[in-house]
């Protein structure tokens, strides 16, 4: 079983931090569906330092999602240290430092993957955060800034020297963004470079991929991102597969119940309008490949309130169940 610091996980399959996706309602669903650990959306250290209301809301948690990790980003060691203390006091079980986000608005501030270009600054940040909080500390990196600067092993060794409890490696470069393919050989090399747990990330599209990555690279755990937004059951499926059990396939009633639960939770957290907009995007993923899904998704864009949502859902899922009789 995977252990990060003093936190022992139920299994080795972990939800990746994803902006706009890994909010509290989604994390609760993913924990219920079998993830061993869930991560928050990326949180601005400066926002926490300034006690900004919107930023502080990212720290809202629920006992049912624990263990729960919060990922922070920033470029100033002292502000990152204070942010880590805020995160720890909020009740998070694990603090994570983002050294992998390739988005320009993050990297132009020297944060995220930009720290791969300055391991000296990264070391100061990790050292400051480690000294500031007692919670287990993880650091998420990429292979390097470009294919000509693969520094994952050097970064991982530095992270270990700074007494972090685990390193997460997304096996793409920052310049790749989310395109191309992840180079799992880099995960193997990182695993051979350090003694702390190594969590692999990149190109986990189906439950079998998680087991394949661990077998091929020797990594201690697997972080799943975009595939989870398409198939929230992937964590349970991967965990069952690792035990030698058949892959779990959710039935139509369970799919419908999940959508309703998530919508109601989102409404409570962010209000009706924002919840509706969020669910429209999720419906594109949750129903992809199902019979008649394109017409359902088209109808879903017209919903305006809970009643119209229930009406559209009832028509579509009733038709689906009739097809399968």
Describe, in plain words, how this protein is organized in 3D.
There is one protein chain. With 325 residues, the protein is α/β, with parallel strands linked by helices. It folds into 2 domains: 3-242, TIM Barrel (Alpha-Beta Barrel), CATH 3.20.20.70; 252-324, Non-ribosomal Peptide Synthetase Peptidyl Carrier Protein, Chain A (Orthogonal Bundle), CATH 1.10.1200.80. The chain is built from 15 helices and 10 strands. It has helices spanning 24-32, 45-49, 53-56, 77-90, 104-107, 119-132, 152-161, 184-193, 207-217, 226-230, 234-242, 252-270, 272-286, 293-300, 306-324, and strands spanning 3-4, 7-8, 13-15, 37-44, 68-73, 94-99, 137-142, 166-170, 198-201, 221-224. It has an 8-stranded parallel β-barrel, surrounded by 7 helices. Strands 1-2 form a two-stranded antiparallel sheet.
Fill in the keyword field for this structure:
325 residues; 2 domains; TIM Barrel; 15 helices; Non-ribosomal Peptide Synthetase Peptidyl Carrier Protein, Chain A; eight-stranded parallel β-barrel; alpha/beta; two-stranded antiparallel ribbon
Q: What's the story with the biggest beta sheet?
A: 8 strands, parallel, barrel
Count of runs of 4 or more consecutive helical residues: 15
Which fold name fills CATH's third level, the topology of the largest domain?
TIM Barrel
Helix content: 40-55%
The SS-based structural class is alpha/beta
Instruction: Return residue spans where pLDDT drops below 50 for at least 5 consecutive residues.
Output: none
